[in-house]
């Protein structure tokens, strides 16, 4: 009957086209099964192969997660102090809590993709507030690393000179990836994949090192970078990536929406704001303003940049400065602009502009900004809740403007499936010309990719090797999937 096909459709929407597992408790994480009510159906469909891979991963995580017998077995190797690993039933990648919230959302997703590709179980260091911000993504198990994890206290001291750092061991010839098949490996390795990593750490992105790492039961990873584009350049991963993501640009779009569900506290922030200020507008525009400049804002050159971008790209109607336009409609078309910024100044100017003058189209423009926190305060709970809520709210827009270099904006564009207009990074406090440009794809940019040809053992421009991995629009040396 049409009723049951309608129900099936709603069920399919609710699970984001099969991306989400069904049957998880709804009350403890309302956002998981309510997000479809706030989002338009994505134009990117998850492949059946991806869906089956996710379901298999969920089984794996349930079988190997914290507290299970294979987990305890694998832990024994860490506790024993043995120098060399013996094969374990389950292997793990541990994500270390590190960096700003936007970065963390991207790196957890990248680490999860790496877990899928390398057949590992992902465990997330809860850090100060991961449990406060994100629900459990996998049914009947936990992805959070237990507090009594034996290496926990070492995390903050892990660095590029740690004796078990992958890059350090390569440098000191304590590991030899060319003999990967016979080489003995330790029970755990620390992977330093932060923006400041060195040429040895970067060998993570070479096939022979992956063969070596395959034998290590525990990989402990620290990164503040979305390293997915470079996974495409590892031949042993490439084919699997093609199968998982036939629409290449939707990697973070799918993985982020699959993994990262706002907790009820954050969902309250999102839904209350949306319903109060955005829901009834005819069109929603998100504008994310992030400046990386010295000194107090708002900066006049950034104000000019926003206006120039909006006008050139026709994102908002022009105002009639002569105030000669008079709307005749009692109920004009309305546009809600959601501005996010640490500074209140930019949205103040826009709000004033659209109050003081009519638009030439007769449309009305409302400007809304949920918070203006002044500066980054990543250690504060409520601050991060608001930051997460704002990234999510931006992603509910119909059109999106983001700031160059900002992972905050990448999260919004990825979740929303929106190709943003990027406000280019100003130099010398001058408005760039053009002020903004359209992104090539919705994928985030990898800010610090390696430029190394693993086979030829020489430097190479990794942004010119394959058509689907290119240099980013906002960072010329970055890489992104397009
Ligand atoms: P990135 O530095 O822009 O790449 O983004 P991150 O999210 O990694 O770090 C920036 C942090 O600054 C955020 O996590 C917030 O804590 C804060 N922040 C920056 N912009 C905003 C904003 O528009 N709204 C809120 N609430 N916080 C922001």
Walk me through what this model shows.
The radius of gyration is 24 Å and the shape is globular. The strands form four sheets. A six-stranded mixed β-sheet has the order 7-6-5-8-9-10, with helices on both faces. Helix content is 35%, strand content 13%. It has two domains: 11-259, no CATH class; 271-443, Rossmann fold. The chain is α/β, with parallel strands linked by helices and 482 residues long. This is Fucosyltransferase. It is a single-pass type II membrane protein.
- Determine the number of helices (DSSP H or I, runs of at least 4 residues): 16
- Number of domain units: 2
Mean pLDDT: 96
Number of E strands: 14
What is the topology?
Elements: H1 2-14, H2 30-34, H3 48-64, H4 69-80, E1 92-95, H5 101-118, E2 121-124, H6 130-133, H7 166-171, E3 188-193, H8 207-213, E4 218-223, H9 228-231, H10 235-244, H11 251-259, H12 264-278, E5 283-289, H13 300-312, E6 334-341, H14 345-356, E7 364-368, H15 381-395, E8 399-403, H16 407-416, E9 421-423, E10 436-438, E11 452-453, E12 458-459, E13 469-471, E14 479-481
Parallel strand pairs: 1-2, 1-4, 3-4, 5-6, 5-8, 6-7, 8-9
Antiparallel strand pairs: 9-10, 11-12, 13-14
Helix pairs in contact: 5-11, 5-16, 11-16, 12-15, 15-16
The structure holds guanosine-5'-diphosphate.
GO molecular function: galactoside 2-alpha-L-fucosyltransferase activity
Function: May be involved in cell wall biosynthesis.
EC number: 2.4.1.-
Features of the shown structure:
single chain, 482 residues, alpha/beta, Rossmann fold, 2 domains, six-stranded mixed beta sheet, four-stranded parallel beta sheet, 14 strands, 35% helix, globular, binds guanosine-5'-diphosphate, EC 2.4.1.-, Fucosyltransferase, transmembrane, glycoprotein
